[in-house]
Fold this protein.
Amino acid sequence: MNIRWTAILAASAAMLAGTPAFAGTCPAGKSIANPLTGAPTAPVKVTDTIIGSVDLQKEIQVDNRDLRMRRLVVQPGGIVPLHSHVGRPALIIVVTGEVTEYRSTCLVGIVHKTGEIASESDGISHWWKNTGTRPAILLSADVKARD
């Protein structure tokens, strides 16, 4: 089955369940500022492919911004390095596998499993690691300033 059908099936399953399957959140008592000291700053065993984008100036008069869809494949042990979501909101669905997120607002890792959606907004900083045994495939929709 190709990735497009896998994504469609995962999204359909979430819709049929009646409510979106939002990913895990920071456990009670663990929500606190985390400076992410020593967080990785370079990608490891991950591919990040833009599969589509829309110029928001043409659509809704927002200058210098694109709405884009990306496909990330994170191999076991792979890392999406530390980055910020200041002015760059995103939604990510885990199509297959699972990943652990290390977030600037939580002292412990947050596991995101197949079919779950993670919201990235409010200026958080974070990084992700595939701590599983199979590749994790993620679809990310975000708003990004043009370089």
